């Protein structure tokens, strides 16, 4: 999800439609969570914050690597689970730019086999890894922790919230399940030529099932022009949660990758944290 999967699907669509043929696109673990190397470290930091590298050993001995931009351990901390082609090195600047208006510590970790983290990527293992990341972050801070899941990271954030108590959760431009996402990625004109085949290992994750059990503070932020994770899916997630403190924000003129760059999204995020009692006015 995010920038990795859709371009590959679209490249196939263009080739297939040009030939007037039919084809099957297989969506599997390597599609959703590819392996890639290191990026570049962040340069500029917000005033009063410092960039801290974090590394810990997972339960199976592999190493997890992450970056944090922190000011005070007592502040709220936002743990961001990113899209499928995002690394700590390459994405921490975007996290800071999007969330620097909040008085919070920011954490972002590489998935297994991505960036500087060791091991081989995998969906089911990645969900367990996401829980270990939260457990590690909780040892580093004293204040409340907000989970923020973007795109593919929305599945991880929801999974973690289903296994650990968290203070709040924010889901940005994510999906209900992989089947729905894959179908959304195929435009109407190509549907007669394309059959999407989702691997069995990806079919067991549906965010609606987890949100049906989540009753904590919940903010869902969707782009009004998002063609990868449609607002309809975000509405389905909103309706699945029994939380009495839930909000759905549809950001005007935003697509999949720029939702948090919009002032509407940033103001809604800050207001959500205030109304949840996690930050002071």
UniProtKB/TrEMBL annotation:
InterPro entries documented for this protein: AB_hydrolase_fold, Hydrolase_4
The keyword Hydrolase belongs to this UniProt entry's keyword annotation: yes
Gene3D superfamilies assigned to the protein according to its UniProt record, in alphabetical order: alpha/beta hydrolase (3.40.50.1820)
Start and end residues of each Serine aminopeptidase S33 domain: 90-198
SUPFAM superfamilies, per database record: alpha/beta-Hydrolases
GO terms assigned for molecular function: hydrolase activity
Protein name: Alpha/beta fold hydrolase
Species, as recorded: Natronospira elongata
Phylogenetic classification of the source organism: Bacteria, Pseudomonadati, Pseudomonadota, Gammaproteobacteria, Natronospirales
């Amino acid at each position: 999800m995010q920038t990795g999967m859709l371009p590959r699907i679209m490249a196939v669509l263009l080739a297939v439609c040009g030939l007037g043929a039919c084809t099957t696109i297989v969506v599997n673990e390597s599609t959703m969570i590819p392996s890639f190397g290191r990026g570049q470290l962040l340069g500029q930091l917000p005033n009063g914050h410092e960039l801290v590298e974090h590394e810990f050993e997972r339960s199976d001995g592999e190493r997890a690597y992450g970056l944090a931009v922190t000011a005070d351990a007592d502040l709220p901390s936002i743990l961001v689970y990113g899209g499928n082609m995002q690394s700590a090195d390459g994405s921490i600047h975007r996290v800071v730019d999007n969330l620097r208006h909040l008085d919070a510590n920011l954490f972002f970790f590489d998935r297994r086999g991505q960036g500087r983290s060791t091991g081989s990527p995998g969906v089911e293992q990645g969900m367990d890894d996401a829980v270990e990341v939260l457990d590690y972050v909780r040892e580093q801070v004293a204040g409340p922790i907000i989970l923020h899941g973007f795109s593919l990271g929305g599945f991880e954030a929801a999974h973690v919230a289903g296994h650990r108590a968290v203070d709040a959760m924010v889901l940005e431009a994510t999906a209900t399940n992989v089947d729905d996402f894959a179908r959304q990625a195929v435009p109407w004109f190509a549907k007669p030529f394309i059959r999407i085949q989702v691997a069995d290992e990806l079919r067991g994750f549906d965010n609606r099932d987890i949100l049906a059990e989540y009753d904590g503070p919940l903010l869902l932020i969707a782009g009004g022009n998002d063609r990868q994770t449609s607002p309809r899916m975000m509405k389905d997630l909103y309706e699945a949660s029994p939380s009495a403190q839930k909000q759905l924000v549809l950001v005007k003129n935003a697509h999949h990758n720029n939702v948090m760059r919009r002032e509407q999204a940033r103001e809604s995020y800050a207001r959500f944290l205030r109304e949840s009692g996690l930050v002071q006015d």
